[in-house]
Predict the 3D structure of the following.
Amino acid sequence: MKKFLIKTLGCKTNQVESALIAEKLTKSGYEETDDIKQADFYILNSCSVTHIADSKNLAYLRRAKRENERIKTVITGCMAQLEKDNLIKQNIADFVIGNYEKNDIGTILENGTKYSVSDIFSHDEFRYEKLYEAHRTRASVKIQDGCDNRCTYCTIPFARGKNRSNPQKNIIEQINIFAKEGYYETVLTGIHIGQWGMDFKEKKTLKNLLEEVEKTDIRRYRLGSLNPLELDNDFIDFLAKSEKFCPHFHLSLQSMCDKTLKAMNRKYTANQIKDLVNYINFKFKNAFIGSDIIAGFPNETEEDFNITAENLSNTGLSRIHVFPYSRRKGTIADKMPNQIDNTEKKHRVSTIQKISDKKIKEFLNKNINTQNEVIIEKRRDSKTGLLKGVTKNYINVLINADDSYKDTIQTILIKDFSSAKEKMIAEIIKE
Ligand code: SF4
């Protein structure tokens, strides 16, 4: 029996796709292993969101060959799609398989076709296949692929193609499969989930889909990253009335300076972001509002940066994921003048990181002595040995309780900060 090891980098969408690849290979007679020495195939589901991600992909492929010289290496995912010519020319991997073809890895390995990368823009349909094992406590459902936006710094549309939505009946079927398999929570993920339904003849919105998700057997659901423009007050009102929605918003903001947002081709303003965040905090008592920010975008003057930092400080966010701007070949931003040097980028990243550290501390502190619902995971926390889980509003908690509580859903009381960064001590409230 042939053995494979699958390594997944990047986003939740890649994780869902890797789970499907593993499930299909296992069903067709392969065996999954996490021992590189045992594996016949090393499958890397790559990410290409930054140049650092690309270097990581190459390092993993080289290491696999070093640790097991007879292994066949497979690169799929966004780097395989974007860099296929270079990967083939440099003979980096034994197989190069595109994002659309990754569902067919089993057949491709059988017939030995070394390079299978189609034009990603030639595909109009979403490829749906049922998944039974999510390999995680929270079972992600891929509801959409691709993106129709053209943010000036981003290569993802060229790796993932145009917006293609998974038909509603498939998503509902998949969520009910997960509920039947014993999962309590599903995460609706994709490349740009806010564009779900926009490619249908009769256009639909993400809110329309959630109205149906509410009727499924799943206990609770969480949303992946959202563009601020895709969250209006009507949608937030709907979510605020939901018993199943996990009050956790992840907003891909990228900047809070209007001049920089314009240069990024992000079609909203800092004031729109503030209004949105204020409305969420008005409708939800304790929602977690995470965000992504790029620091050091070309032409971002010190004054522009200070505007972003000031606005972030004065906006009711819970945490900020800050990334240094990464030049991506073929993007508009890559050709812009006044690229910011790495030292200055590092400085700006650390400035925003300090703002974020203060916000997350305030958010966690505000949640002390509050009750919440947590899914207790199958594995204990490796550092403390305590049980661990995530609340509906995205707080990591540690619980001192016996194994009988593993893989159960409990009401807890958040007691205090733990010694572990951004993890809180909680106790189970016995009914
Ligand atoms: S919305 Fe912008 S940043 Fe996000 S995937 Fe699309 S082009 Fe990239």
